[in-house]
Amino acid sequence: MLGVMDHHTTELERAFQIAKSGRCGSLKDIRSQLRSEGYSTTRITGGTLAKQLQALIQAAQTPKGP
Fold first, then answer.
1. Using one digit for the tens of pLDDT, what is the confidence trace for 4-53?
2. Geometric angle at alpha carbon 34, from 37 and 4, rounded to 5°
3. Under the phi-then-psi rule, with left for phi > 0, alpha for psi from -120 to 50, and beta for the rest, what region is 22?
4. What is the predicted pLDDT for the residue at 9?
5. What's the pTM?
6. Contact by Cβ (8 Å): 24, 60
7. Cα–chain-centroid distance for residue 30?
8. Which residues are within 8 A (CB) of 53 and not within 5 positions of it... i.e. 6 or more apart?
9. What whole-number distance in Å separates Cα of residue 60 and Cα of residue 66?
């Protein structure tokens, strides 16, 4: 389902929300989701940000213990 941009949420905040959701498997997927929701992806750059988002993606996809 395509989302609608929330004018109170920045693209960076939304990128973190998407990464934590477990619905995306890569930074490319996050950028695609952002664009589909009407967000710009121009600020979704840089090695540090990429590492943070990748860590969140991985944590969201790691099965939780019993």
1. 667 789 999 999 999 999 999 999 999 999 999 999 999 999 999 999 99
2. 20
3. left
4. 93
5. 0.84
6. no
7. 4
8. 15, 16, 19, 27, 30
9. 16
**What does the block give as tokens for 9?**
């949420």
Q: Which two tokens stand for residue 11?
A: 């693209």
Tokens in use for 48?
A: 């540090």
Tokens of 12: 């960076």
d(Cα 43, Cα 12) in Å, to the nearest integer? Answer: 7
Q: Tokens 């750059």 label which residue?
A: 45
Which of 11, 19, 22 minimizes the C-alpha distance to 51? 19
Between the CA of residue 32 and those of 12, 14, 25, 50, what are the distances in Å? 14, 12, 11, 15
Domain residues of the chain, as ranges? 11-61
